[in-house]
Amino acid sequence: MKYTAEALADKAREARRICMQMSYIAGSEGAHIGPALSIMDITTVLYFDVMNYKVDDRYWSERDRFILSKGHACLGQYAPLVLCGFISEEESKTFNRTHTRLAGHPSGIGVPGIEHPSGSLGHGLAVGCGIALAGKMDRKDYNTYVLIGDGEANEGSIWESVMFAKQHKLDNLVAIVDVNNLQYGGKTADLMDMSPMKEKWEAFGWNVITTNGNDVAELQIALDKSNKKRDVPTCVIANTVKGFGLSFIANNNDWHHCKVTKEILERALDELK
Amino acid sequence: MFKINAENTQSWNIQFRPMFGELVRNLVKERNDVILVVADSGRACRCDGFEECPNQFIDCGIAEQNMVGVAAGLAHCGKKPITFGFAPFASERGFEQIRIDVAYSNLNVIIVGSEGGVGMGTQGVTHFGWEDVAVMRSLPNMTVLCPADHAELIKCLEASLNLNGPVYIRMNGGIPKPVYREDYDFKVGKGILHKKGKDINIIATGPLVSKALEAADILDAEGIFAGVVDMHTIKPLDEKLIFELAGEARLMLTIEEHSVVNGLGTAVADVLSTSGSGCRLIKMGFPDQYPHTVSPYDVMMSDYGLTAENLVVTIKEGLGR
Questions:
Q1: The domain spanning residue A184 has which CATH number?
Q2: Could you tell me how many CB contacts below 8 A there are between chain A and chain B?
Q3: Three-state DSSP class for B201?
Q4: Are strands B167-172 and A65-68 parallel, antiparallel or unpaired?
Q5: Residues B212 and B308 in one domain
Q6: Are residues B38 and B153 in the same domain?
Q7: Is residue B180 in a domain?
Q8: Please, what's the largest Cα pairwise distance for chain B?
Q9: Quick one: pLDDT at residue A78?
Q10: Domain, as residue range, for B99
Q11: Confidence class for position A110, pLDDT limits 50, 70, 90
């Protein structure tokens, strides 16, 4: 079922509500709220517009695969997974609590919808390359989407995979770079300037599309499968705002990892009505 | 060609690496799920592509972290990837990828490290597998195998393809002397007891199995009865066999082409310490210190006392004879 841009925006808002509720459940453990809100529109569009999958058959061999390489943004994946029914609402209430499967960085074993574990940065694109390569070998039509952060792109291993995907003509692989210009320690430009991001990926031979990563209508266009180029992997540079969707969190790096009190939750839910 | 019999085993008078390359070349013809994934390291096993099945050879360029990740992705899709490189690069250069993307994810990736120990001789310490077994055996889910000779390399590879979960196959240096000349029963996690000792039991792994057998023969002539075990599986270790042997001789000795820290010797010590037998242990291997001069393989092995002759001396000292 395909959604209109308006309906997708509603879904993304709902996902943000779930994200804040789960962050509140995490209590004193806290949660990576800024990064999750940054990617929420991207993951919403992937799960509700772009990707083919079956909730009741998580290992369906034809499914499109999604790997969240920047695993700390896991609420940005858990929330859509709750919305599409992979994770039950009941289980969502265990986030970051004792004996939970829903850790602060996603586990690859057990949690439906999580293809591969992440949390240590710079791993996901290589695994995505392997999955895409297997798809080519087996003449399958699925696509593999890997979401990485602009800070994460500091990792040298990312660029090993960037070279590999081009060399092996993985046109069934889409890397999405969440460019929110902030990372744990501060501004990306001050820490390790990754600009010009687009030109970097182009120089490595990728088909690059730049979009507003917090606009579901633009994301729908950017992530549309018709944008793919034969024999060339695609990179979608998604310009985002860290903490997008909540006025008091947006672009404020104090919300990279934070605890959510009852008052904060109420304020957030009020804004997300 | 790879049938284990007297004629074939005699003709395999080569280093482990080219043998491994030939084995995989043969294997991909039979199985289309086996993929050799290398990091510009194919030529090290005389294998830079398969003419008949070109898609089953993937070169990642000089990028071991990506090599491991790609193998994990392939394994996710039901393939049986085999990564290959010199021991330190195969095991340690992409170690965190092995930890998370392979071990934690419990995927069927076979990691092959060649020329473990001091196999690279004068090439230097960067190329030595000094502590590769130690790091690999510390990973949950990881099986660690170390073949004694070419026949056992075949057995290890066959067994790995039938296991569920990741495997590290550690090949050692030099041209291994054949231990097995006829087909034999091989089970992962089951050490092979070549002879039972009355005075001492030697637990050996890799090509040191043949040296242990040689030492046992020398000792035998002097009235010292040494047992010999081929402990091809370092993890999961054959605890039952260690317990059994600890009760039968008061001394045990481990010998490996690896640091004495956290390799086979430590694994055996861990088991022995819970046996309540009072059996003493001598660990032979490399010291906890990197060398700063290097020599050809056989000289290095000799310098570190990893010879049949030194085994005899060490055992006599250990027994006070």
A1: 3.40.50.970
A2: 98
A3: strand
A4: unpaired
A5: yes
A6: yes
A7: no
A8: 60
A9: 98
A10: 16-172
A11: confident
Strands A207-212 and A186-187: unpaired
Whether residues B156 and B209 share a domain: the answer is no
Contact B69 A119 (CB under 8 A): no
Which pair of tokens denotes residue A183?
């990372």
* DSSP code at position B93: I
Cβ-contact A20, A269 below 8 angstroms:
yes
CB contact under 8 A, A160 and B74: no
Residue A156 CB coordination number (10 Å): 11
How much of chain A, in percent, has pLDDT values that exceed 90? 96
- Report yes or no: B174 and B116 within 8 Å, Cβ to Cβ: no
What per-residue confidence (pLDDT) applies to B256? 98
- Give the closest of A108, A125, A130 to B71, CB-based: A130
The parts of chain B modelled with pLDDT lower than 70 are: none
- A221 vs chain B: nearest CA distance in angstroms? 28
Mean pLDDT of A174-182: 98
- Residue B78, by phi and psi: left (phi above 0), alpha (psi -120 to 50) or beta? left
Instruction: Tell me how far apart the alpha carbons of residues A16 and A176 are, in angstroms, rounded to a whole number.
Output: 20
Which residue, among A204, A133, A199, has the nearest Cα to A171 in the 3D structure?
A133
CA distance B60 to chain A (A): 6
Average pLDDT over residues A60-84: 98
The 3-class SS string of B109-145 reads CEEEEEEEECCCHHHCHHHCECCHHHHHHCCCCCEEE
Q: If you measure CA to CA, which chain B residue comes closest to A108?
A: B105
Q: What is the pLDDT of residue A109?
A: 80
| B118 and B205 inside one domain | no
Q: What is the CATH number of the domain that holds B275?
A: 3.40.50.920
Q: Residue A210 — very low, low, confident or very high, per pLDDT cuts 50/70/90?
A: very high
Number of structural domains chain A divides into:
1
* DSSP-assigned beta bridge partners for residue A173: A144
A171 neighbors A231 (Cβ within 8 angstroms): yes
Q: Is B74 in contact with A133 (Cβ distance < 8 A)?
A: yes
Distance from CA of B264 to the nearest CA of A (A): 30
Q: Looking at the structure, tell me whether residues B168 and B212 fall in a common domain.
A: no
Mean pLDDT, all residues of chain A: 96
Assess whether pLDDT exceeds 70 at residue A1.
Answer: no
Q: Who among B73, B104, B106 is closest to A131 (CB)?
A: B73
Least CB-CB distance to A164: which of B66, B75, B97? B66
Q: A35: number of CA atoms within 13 Å, CB side?
A: 29
ipTM value, please give it: 0.95
pLDDT for B297 equals: 97
